[in-house]
């Protein structure tokens, strides 16, 4: 088994972070089985480098979490949009259904969130759990935020709450089968399933 087991923040969909993070994940896969699938990771970037969110030029760097809401739900892999926050699939899921709750506002630190942002981030976290339980019978969750690069945040400038569904034994086979779970079509399917299961209506209390 590899020494390094990918965690949620190895898997952020940052434009600048993707090559390095892809290498980390693939290295782990290589240690288990030689793979011919490396090129299959590349199409995932398309959702983030096309459309209105595309940087104006090659040198321009736009925060992906600011760019994603400008895309369609399908292109951005957005599961649900709220008033203050949105829920989006992670491009490199630790488990199928791994999503993130992200404020629209470009804000780095949890203590800088407004009350409405704090409330809806919590509400969307609950809705994500409900949707994942309904759609995939998740048995447990890893939920949390990494504040700052030193804590492991892949995109430290724009905070994001990870919601990772867990099933018994998933950590054992995920490094092997994980490579098949990142195909764009499967992510698109996952998005549709979770969007359909997303609880509508009043805040979850
Ligand atoms: Zn941002």
Task: Give the tags.
12% strand; disordered N terminus; 35% helix; 7 helices; alpha+beta; HIT family, subunit A; binds zinc ion
What does this structure look like?
The structure is a single chain. The protein contains 7 helices and 5 strands. With 205 residues, it is of the alpha+beta class. It has one domain: HIT family, subunit A (2-Layer Sandwich). A 5-stranded antiparallel beta sheet has the order 1-2-3-5-4. A hairpin with a 3-residue loop joins strand 1 and strand 2. The radius of gyration is 16 Å and the shape is globular. The N terminus is likely disordered. It binds zinc ion. Zinc ion binds next to helix 3.
Strand content: 5-15%
Spans of at least 5 consecutive residues with low confidence:
1-60
How many runs of DSSP E, i.e. beta strands? 5
Give the strand order, joined by hyphens, for the main sheet: 1-2-3-5-4
What number is the mean pLDDT?
Answer: 74
* Broad CATH class: Alpha Beta
- Cα distance, first to last residue? 41 Å
Tally of individual domains: 1
What structural category arises from helix and sheet content? Answer: alpha+beta
Number of helices: 7
- CATH architectural category: 2-Layer Sandwich
Superfamily (CATH H level) name: HIT-like
Radius of gyration: 16 Å
Q: List ligands, each type once.
A: zinc ion
Approximate helicity band = 25-40%
How is the topology of this model organized?
Layout: H1 18-32, H2 46-49, H3 64-67, H4 73-76, E1 78-81, E2 85-89, E3 99-103, H5 115-136, E4 140-144, E5 161-166, H6 170-177, H7 184-197
Helix pairs in contact: 5-7
Bound molecules: zinc ion.
Zinc ion binds next to helix 3.
